[in-house]
From TrEMBL:
Its main location: membrane. It comes from Thermofilum adornatum 1505. It comes from the Archaea. Has multiple subunits with at least A(3), B(3), C, D, E, F, H, I and proteolipid K(x). This is A-type ATP synthase subunit E. The gene is atpE. One of its GO terms (cellular component) is proton-transporting two-sector ATPase complex, catalytic domain.
Length: 210
């Protein structure tokens, strides 16, 4: 009877030991699984946090760009406008320097008038013309026309120019064919406008490439 009891105790002890080992194994596996779940959860949470942060940064950047864009366009518009104004002022200053040189003496005035009136008369088909001089040029127009006629003698041997009423302008004249079909504005004001309209766009085009 004592031997049976001892054997039973051994069996119970072994069973208890096996149960404890199995329990320890299950516990370790459970702990490992729990740790893995926790790490996965942390990794997922970190990934979501980064994704959320990136999304917030993107949205803020887009919002900032949308707010800045009109300001940048306005600054660019003002810059171009100011640049054009400065260039325009410089061109006007240069033109006025030339104008002052032209009108600074009787010789330069006369040379200018002979040039512009010769070009005007030569470009017109008619040889029978009426000229309305500017008030600033009326005193020297007769002498100028004599030179113009001599200069264009071979081109227009039958040239006839009638001097009519002076008009409000600084230098030059407006020339009209006697039949009224042709008209040529050879005033200093017209030449200034022509130069401005020709030069300014070219300068601005060059500046826009820089």
């Amino acid at each position: 009877m004592g031997e049976h009891k001892s054997l039973l105790e051994v069996i119970i002890k072994e069973m208890r030991s096996a149960a404890e080992e199995e329990a320890q194994k299950i516990l370790k596996e459970a702990e490992a699984e729990a740790q893995k779940i926790l790490e996965d959860a942390r990794a997922k949470a970190e990934s979501l946090r980064k994704e959320k942060l990136n999304q917030l940064v993107f949205e803020y950047r887009q919002k900032l760009l949308s707010e800045i864009a009109p300001m940048r366009l306005e600054l660019k518009r003002k810059y171009i406008q100011e640049k054009y104004r400065l260039v325009e002022n410089q061109v006007d200053e240069l033109i006025m320097e030339v104008v002052n040189e032209i009108t600074g003496s009787s010789d330069t005035r006369k040379a200018f008038l002979v040039k512009v009136l010769s070009d005007a008369v030569a470009s017109m088909a008619s040889s029978d013309l009426v000229i309305n001089p500017c008030y600033g040029s009326k005193d020297i127009i007769p002498d100028v026309l004599e030179e113009v006629k001599q200069k264009l003698l071979s081109l227009k041997p039958n040239l006839r120019i009638e001097v009519s009423t002076p008009i409000e302008c600084r230098e030059g004249a407006v020339i009209t064919s006697s039949d009224g079909r042709e008209i040529y504005n050879a005033t200093l004001e017209a030449k200034i406008k022509e130069v401005r309209e020709s030069v300014l766009p070219k300068i601005m085009e060059q500046l826009s490439k820089k």
